[in-house]
């Protein structure tokens, strides 16, 4: 009866997956995602957006979180929800690190499967922001898993979550965009809690064009693989982890521009010879909401191919500070922006799997210097090293937490599958140190 509909099939898989299904690759990749997301969330607590809307958007407020293919930000919608829910469990029903990893991965998996129901979802979005649709559903599935809901309640969780789904892409590059992922996490958690209380929705929400199909013109839902040796999408497709907080497409631009700058400054004492530059051309796919020739705010700058090209040419690399107001409005940057134009070659498709960036600087003497980036450092084809991932986390977390808590989080996440009580993570996130937590930090060393 359950497998007759796509929705029923999803419910039975969400209900049926257990910790034995997790593979080593999935555990390792998801721990990297969790560590990165915690750091990004900690840094996000210091932003203006977060100060204005404290309870919503701690994760995505700087556009610094991981990105998957087909395009979405998978972790930010799921991790805050399952961590908040784990804190609500009574002390005698402790949530283990393995329980948390399973729920988190169910939430990631559901997002990836839904994105594969549409071929248009493979490209950079045009109409709605994907985390507001699949992120809400992923958060709901993860929370349903953590609550151990039965199959009927899992179906209702998905149905309720679908009524919370969706937000227009027009709010990209504004202070409202960070609310999208905060809301996805919150609404998924709410959907699971309402379903656990018996609230009902349409039990074919994934099957119908008027259900989740409403968001896609080419919606084609498929049943999930069998639970026997379940093939996780995260096993096949890793995520990209950003080195600086901006739209993922700009990371190709930064790496190409950085290579061009190295060639430009070889004979000029590491200073860009700005007065010798006639023109800058940036070849990228056509992505309208990241084409911003003169950004005025940090949020617009994070969504500007042109800004990232010029900022990298001037400074050599991108960082959190690149988006400070004094850097956005400095005269040298404004001068370079005026010389910069985008081109959209027909072979450069708007997909995070295949796009490239070529930056060309034409000098006044007629010389041209050019470089192309096919895969930036941090992309799933060229992942950050463990050391660089830790450095990013430490840099982000040190804005908020003391060193002892930071090291505690790193150690806990790296050993998450052996941690008996995952609430230790929340304790570290509040700034407390390990000395206070001997019983929670108990790790099952027998398996290691």
Automatic annotation (TrEMBL):
<dbReference type="GO" id="GO:0045087">
    <property type="term" value="P:innate immune response"/>
</dbReference>
<comment type="function">
    <text>Cis-aconitate decarboxylase that catalyzes production of itaconate and is involved in the inhibition of the inflammatory response. Acts as a negative regulator of the Toll-like receptors (TLRs)-mediated inflammatory innate response by stimulating the tumor necrosis factor alpha-induced protein TNFAIP3 expression via reactive oxygen species (ROS) in LPS-tolerized macrophages.</text>
</comment>
<dbReference type="GO" id="GO:0047613">
    <property type="term" value="F:aconitate decarboxylase activity"/>
</dbReference>
<dbReference type="GO" id="GO:0072573">
    <property type="term" value="P:tolerance induction to lipopolysaccharide"/>
</dbReference>
<dbReference type="InterPro" id="IPR045337">
    <property type="entry name" value="MmgE_PrpD_C"/>
</dbReference>
<dbReference type="GO" id="GO:0006954">
    <property type="term" value="P:inflammatory response"/>
</dbReference>
<dbReference type="Pfam" id="PF19305">
    <property type="entry name" value="MmgE_PrpD_C"/>
</dbReference>
<dbReference type="InterPro" id="IPR042183">
    <property type="entry name" value="MmgE/PrpD_sf_1"/>
</dbReference>
<keyword id="KW-0496">Mitochondrion</keyword>
<dbReference type="InterPro" id="IPR005656">
    <property type="entry name" value="MmgE_PrpD"/>
</dbReference>
<dbReference type="Pfam" id="PF03972">
    <property type="entry name" value="MmgE_PrpD_N"/>
</dbReference>
<dbReference type="InterPro" id="IPR045336">
    <property type="entry name" value="MmgE_PrpD_N"/>
</dbReference>
<comment type="subunit">
    <text>Homodimer.</text>
</comment>
<dbReference type="GO" id="GO:0002760">
    <property type="term" value="P:positive regulation of antimicrobial humoral response"/>
</dbReference>
<dbReference type="InterPro" id="IPR036148">
    <property type="entry name" value="MmgE/PrpD_sf"/>
</dbReference>
<keyword id="KW-0929">Antimicrobial</keyword>
<feature type="domain" description="MmgE/PrpD N-terminal">
    <location>
        <begin position="9"/>
        <end position="57"/>
    </location>
</feature>
<feature type="domain" description="MmgE/PrpD C-terminal">
    <location>
        <begin position="244"/>
        <end position="413"/>
    </location>
</feature>
<keyword id="KW-0456">Lyase</keyword>
<keyword id="KW-0391">Immunity</keyword>
<dbReference type="GO" id="GO:0005739">
    <property type="term" value="C:mitochondrion"/>
</dbReference>
<keyword id="KW-0395">Inflammatory response</keyword>
<keyword id="KW-0399">Innate immunity</keyword>
<dbReference type="GO" id="GO:0042803">
    <property type="term" value="F:protein homodimerization activity"/>
</dbReference>
<dbReference type="InterPro" id="IPR042188">
    <property type="entry name" value="MmgE/PrpD_sf_2"/>
</dbReference>
<protein>
    <recommendedName>
        <fullName>Cis-aconitate decarboxylase</fullName>
        <ecNumber>4.1.1.6</ecNumber>
    </recommendedName>
</protein>
<comment type="similarity">
    <text>Belongs to the PrpD family.</text>
</comment>
<feature type="domain" description="MmgE/PrpD N-terminal">
    <location>
        <begin position="59"/>
        <end position="221"/>
    </location>
</feature>
């Amino acid at each position: 009866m359950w497998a007759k509909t796509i929705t029923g099939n999803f419910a039975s898989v969400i209900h049926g997956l257990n910790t034995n299904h997790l593979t080593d690759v999935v555990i390792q990749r998801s721990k990297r995602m969790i560590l990165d997301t915690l750091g990004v969330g900690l840094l996000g607590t210091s932003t203006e957006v977060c100060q204005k809307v404290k309870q919503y958007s701690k994760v995505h407020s700087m556009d610094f979180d991981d990105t998957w293919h087909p395009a979405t930000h998978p972790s930010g919608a799921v991790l805050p929800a399952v961590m908040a829910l784990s804190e609500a469990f009574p002390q005698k029903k402790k949530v283990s690190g393995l329980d948390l990893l399973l729920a988190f991965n169910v939430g990631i998996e559901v997002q990836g499967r839904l994105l594969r129901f549409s071929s248009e979802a493979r490209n950079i979005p045009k109409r709605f922001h994907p985390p507001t649709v699949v992120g809400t559903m992923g958060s709901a599935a993860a929370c349903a898993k953590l609550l151990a809901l039965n199959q009927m309640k899992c179906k209702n969780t998905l149905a309720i979550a679908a009524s919370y789904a969706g937000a227009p892409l027009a709010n990209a590059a504004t202070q409202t965009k960070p609310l999208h992922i905060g809301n996805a996490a919150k609404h998924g958690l709410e959907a699971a809690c309402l379903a656990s209380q018996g609230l009902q929705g349409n039990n074919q929400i994934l099957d119908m064009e008027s259900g989740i199909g409403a968001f896609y013109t080419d919606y084609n839902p498929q049943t999930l693989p069998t639970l026997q040796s379940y093939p996780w999408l995260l096993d096949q497709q890793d995520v990209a982890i950003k080195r600086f907080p901006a739209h993922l497409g700009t990371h190709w631009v930064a790496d190409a521009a950085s290579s061009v700058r190295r060639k430009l400054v070889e004979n000029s004492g590491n200073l860009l010879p700005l007065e010798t530059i006639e023109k800058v051309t940036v070849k990228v796919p056509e992505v309208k909401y990241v084409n911003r020739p003169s950004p005025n705010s940090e949020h617009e700058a994070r969504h500007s191919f042109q800004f990232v090209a010029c900022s990298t040419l001037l400074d050599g690399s991108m960082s959190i500070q690149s988006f400070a107001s004094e850097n956005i409005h400095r005269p040298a940057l404004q001068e370079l922006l005026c010389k910069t134009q985008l081109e959209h070659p027909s072979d450069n498709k708007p997909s995070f799997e295949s796009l490239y960036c070529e930056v060309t600087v034409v000098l006044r003497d007629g010389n041209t210097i050019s470089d192309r980036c096919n895969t930036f450092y941090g992309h799933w084809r060229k992942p950050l090293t463990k050391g660089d991932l830790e450095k990013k986390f430490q840099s982000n977390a040190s804005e908020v937490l003391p060193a002892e808590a930071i090291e505690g989080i790193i150690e806990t996440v790296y050993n998450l599958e052996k941690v008996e009580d995952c609430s230790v993570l929340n304790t570290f996130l509040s700034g407390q140190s390990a000395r206070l937590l001997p019983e929670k930090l108990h790790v099952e060393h027998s398996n290691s």
